[in-house]
Amino acid sequence: MKETNIHNPKNLSGRLQTFLGEFVYGGIDGSVTTFAVVSGAYGANLDSAVIIILGLANLLADGFAMSVGAYLSARSENDNFEKHKAIENWEIDNLREREVEEIREIYVAKGFEGELLEQVVEKITSDREVWIDTMMKEELEMIKTDKTPISIGAVTFISFILVGTIPLIIYLIDFVNPLDLDLFLTSAILTGIAFALIGVLKAFVNNTNALRGLLETLLLGGAAALIAYFVGDFLEKIVLGAV
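-> structure tokens emitted (243 positions)
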């Protein structure tokens, strides 16, 4: 039986792993910014309906802006890669001996020498695609991703919306069916859980300590919420005091 490779981008789980980084960072931004809006509105003693309006408006606008930024960044990286690849193509055609010597220098630095070194150089320079790929990776330290700019932007947007909705969920439920709950406290608890889960995923993506990732996301998200809360509270007193 043929073994399924979970890292194959054509496999669903492989695709999820491929885009996990974009999902994590989109989720972090979505949850932090939305909860900051909720905290600021709560600090300003705004009505729940206003919190929903501000939260959803922020969610859609910031989510779109972030996805566009991710798309443009990925597009720029791809364009930069293709530009340098074209330069390497030109140099192989016009400065062949120099490019051969650069391959030799790369593998000398790796410890190759003598006949083995020459065999490696001859093998690489006999295949143009392998030659260019080697120069891109070893000389320029550039690797082209299989992810398209559109897919990166789409995953970022979806993650921003999905995770960013969590701080608003309890307000939306209360709007449809009034609850006998402290809405802000419940929102804070749900958001804290989201921060924790995203923090663990972030640690997985970066291959760092899970507890550190969890605490870092909780602290940064909490700090943003506190700042927004006190700013909202301060502005409410200033504005109402001036009326």
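Confidence is low (pLDDT under 50) at residues 1-10.
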